[in-house]
């Protein structure tokens, strides 16, 4: 829409909780008009179904979704279907495969990334934290191609980028490339991957990652698939570094952190306390089967837990859907969140903690002056949207109607 000042009418908003015998049994809602000017919500007013405006047809308005762990530069989306190969079992197997395939993938990566972003839009996602390969095979081509795709999609998506040494920092000669990437304005976080199993040391690669973040005023987002002793030592090392360097507090994350899923209850409580004390967050794709992350315990202690899809039709995983509501639904099922109140709270995993109602049922979103980043969904309330993975019918990003 060229004119970014407009009104939405017949918009369903959550206004509170209804109780019965002390239990929250329903979410109260009402129809409203929403005035949007430029990239902000200007006013929330009484509904005027006969007035001028775009008809939302009674659909529920929710905050737009945020995918906090993706690999936009490196996936098979847009290529012929290909399931995961049983022959590639380790991260080093994957590195060898990527070294062979990346030159071919790069030929179409800009166009395919744009298509993938379009698919994520269809599920209501408007913000993405994407890791981008920095490695000797692709050099900076993966980054430059991703930047080009994001530029083409600048009116419909925002992103923050992690310089990701997927092929190891020292296992392949990536150190000089990572140092150069750390200086780039496009990069927001310094990444890493399994320092002990890939590079043969926890300290050497982690020292570099931390120093690059400090020297270049970046955050840290480390891929850590390692379990057991090496995984826990790496997490402890990073916590200690953040405690030594408070500038990293609140901008340091461990993605996956599978080691946390295999601890005793007392050990989990202890590490959750330390993560919270240091302000180190966890980014999870919500694995299940043999690895169920202790997300409730982490959140109980105040650890920031971010959620992302990670793999979306790529050579690592066959099942990625790109749907953040589906991720929230999976969390609800895994951890037994089935009541109206619990399901409504679970929406926070898709929106990075923005919720229409606070825990007591007081309306807190939207307010005049909020960013006009929102979705309309076919649902009566947040709880239903999570439980039924409701269809997203419209996405608005910074006041612009994407669809």
TrEMBL record:
<feature type="domain" description="Amidohydrolase 3">
    <location>
        <begin position="211"/>
        <end position="403"/>
    </location>
</feature>
<dbReference type="Pfam" id="PF07969">
    <property type="entry name" value="Amidohydro_3"/>
</dbReference>
<dbReference type="InterPro" id="IPR013108">
    <property type="entry name" value="Amidohydro_3"/>
</dbReference>
<dbReference type="InterPro" id="IPR032466">
    <property type="entry name" value="Metal_Hydrolase"/>
</dbReference>
<protein>
    <submittedName>
        <fullName>Amidohydrolase family protein</fullName>
    </submittedName>
</protein>
<dbReference type="InterPro" id="IPR052349">
    <property type="entry name" value="Metallo-hydrolase_Enzymes"/>
</dbReference>
<dbReference type="InterPro" id="IPR011059">
    <property type="entry name" value="Metal-dep_hydrolase_composite"/>
</dbReference>
């Amino acid at each position: 829409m060229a004119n970014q000042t407009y009104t939405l009418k017949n918009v369903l908003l959550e206004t509170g909780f209804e109780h019965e015998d002390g239990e929250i049994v329903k979410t109260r809602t009402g129809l409203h008009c929403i005035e949007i000017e430029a990239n902000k919500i200007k006013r929330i007013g009484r509904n005027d179904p006969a007035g001028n405006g775009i008809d939302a047809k009674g659909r529920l308005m929710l905050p737009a979704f945020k995918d906090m762990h993706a690999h936009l530069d490196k996936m098979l989306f847009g290529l012929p279907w290909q399931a995961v190969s049983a022959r590639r079992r380790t991260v080093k197997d994957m590195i060898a495969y990527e070294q062979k395939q990346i030159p071919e993938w790069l030929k179409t990566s800009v166009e395919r990334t744009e298509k993938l972003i379009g698919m994520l839009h269809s599920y209501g996602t408007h913000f993405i934290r994407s890791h981008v390969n920095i490695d000797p095979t692709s050099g900076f081509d993966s980054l430059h191609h991703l930047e080009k795709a994001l530029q083409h999609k600048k009116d419909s998506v925002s992103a923050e980028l992690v310089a990701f040494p997927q092929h190891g920092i020292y296992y392949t000669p990536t150190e000089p490339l990572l140092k150069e990437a750390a200086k780039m304005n496009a990069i927001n976080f310094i990444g890493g991957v399994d320092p002990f199993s890939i590079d043969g040391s926890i300290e050497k690669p982690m020292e570099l990652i931390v120093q690059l973040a400090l020297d270049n005023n970046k955050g840290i987002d480390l891929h850590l698939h390692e379990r057991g002793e090496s995984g826990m030592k790496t997490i402890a090392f990073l916590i200690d570094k953040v405690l030594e360097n408070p500038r990293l507090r609140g901008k340091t994350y461990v993605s996956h952190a599978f080691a946390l899923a295999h601890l005793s209850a007392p050990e989990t409580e202890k590490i959750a306390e330390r993560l919270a004390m240091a302000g180190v967050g966890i980014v999870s794709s919500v694995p299940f089967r043999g690895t169920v992350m202790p997300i409730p315990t982490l959140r109980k202690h105040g650890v920031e837990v971010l959620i992302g899809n990670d793999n979306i039709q790529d050579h690592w995983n066959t099942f990625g859907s790109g749907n953040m509501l589906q991720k929230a639904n999976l969390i609800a099922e895994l951890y037994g969140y089935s009541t109206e109140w619990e399901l409504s709270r679970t929406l926070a995993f898709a929106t990075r903690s923005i919720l229409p109602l606070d825990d007591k049922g007081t309306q807190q979103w939207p307010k005049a002056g909020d960013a006009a980043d929102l979705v309309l969904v076919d649902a009566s309330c947040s709880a239903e949207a999570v439980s039924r993975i409701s269809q997203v019918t419209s996405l608005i990003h910074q006041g612009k109607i994407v669809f």
